[in-house]
Design a protein that fits this description.
Length: about 260
């Protein structure tokens, strides 16, 4: 479903948009932490799109941050396409403001960029947004941010698809304070993007977390393999579980920092 939606979306003909203006008057030569070469920017964003990480979205005047992901890069049309926002009230705000700041991690390094003159589209009833590929990306490659290798930690995942009623089980390969990535041996539950997985459980630091899981992407783990990777956001997480999760992620980050200093 995700791949079909993404393919259909990227085949649409879209009007060319002007390259976004710089966010401030700082010359790129004064700050080596910015990438301004268009070829490098397109390559970097394509790598991020291929990895499908969850991204943090900030909108001026918004009471909270939102989550999304990059759905596609169309270099020939000068377009970047991003998914609808979660929680949903961010979509109404973005359609009014038409500007945002996107941030995520790539190869353990924090990056961010702004998008303006954002246009709204829809495919299969699901909203998406398109804007000009940014002219500048904050990507301080000389600095190291901790990268958590969750795949080395055996955290099992289980739940039940709300749509099909079939059980889902797997292991986490990625974890953040707001969501996770799950490796599943086979997609028997026919999980699709935008599905909700109910009655989910994982054990974090000897604490059983129960929650619902809003699926944001589903993709093959490898070519010609029955294994799939799905990513999504935690919903209905108790305050205690949220606190435990935040503490656990912070402890992993500290461990990574110590490894890098060793």
């Amino acid at each position: 479903m995700f791949k079909k939606f993404k393919s259909a979306l990227l085949k649409r003909t879209a009007p060319s948009l002007p390259i976004q203006a710089e966010e401030d008057d700082l010359s790129p030569f004064e700050n080596p932490n910015f990438i301004t070469d268009r070829t490098k920017i397109v390559s970097l964003l394509a790598e991020i799109e291929g990895g499908s990480p969850l991204c943090t979205i900030q909108i001026d005047g918004a009471p909270e941050d939102y989550s999304s992901s990059i759905l596609g890069i169309k270099a020939d049309k000068n377009l970047i396409i991003i998914d609808e926002l979660t929680p949903g009230d961010g979509n109404r705000l973005l359609q009014t403001q038409k500007n945002l700041k996107l941030s995520t991690f790539h190869k353990g390094i924090h990056l961010s960029f702004g998008l303006s003159a954002i246009e709204t589209g829809s495919s299969h009833g699901i909203a998406y947004y398109k804007a000009a590929i940014p002219g500048r990306v904050y990507y301080p490659q000389r600095r190291r941010s901790p990268r958590i290798e969750i795949s080395a930690i055996d955290i099992k995942f289980s739940g039940v698809s709300e749509r099909t009623g079939i059980s889902v089980s797997g292991r986490l390969f990625d974890l953040s304070r707001s969501g996770a990535g799950v490796d599943v041996a086979a997609n028997r539950a026919r999980i699709q993007r935008s599905d909700i997985i109910k009655q989910c459980r994982i054990n974090v630091d000897d604490h059983d977390m129960e929650f619902d899981f809003a699926v944001r992407f589903v993709k093959p783990a490898a070519p010609n393999s029955p294994r799939v990777q799905m990513g999504g956001l935690f919903e209905n997480l108790s305050n205690k579980s949220q606190a435990k999760l935040s503490y656990f992620v912070a402890s992993l980050e500290r461990m990574e920092i110590r490894k890098q200093k060793a």
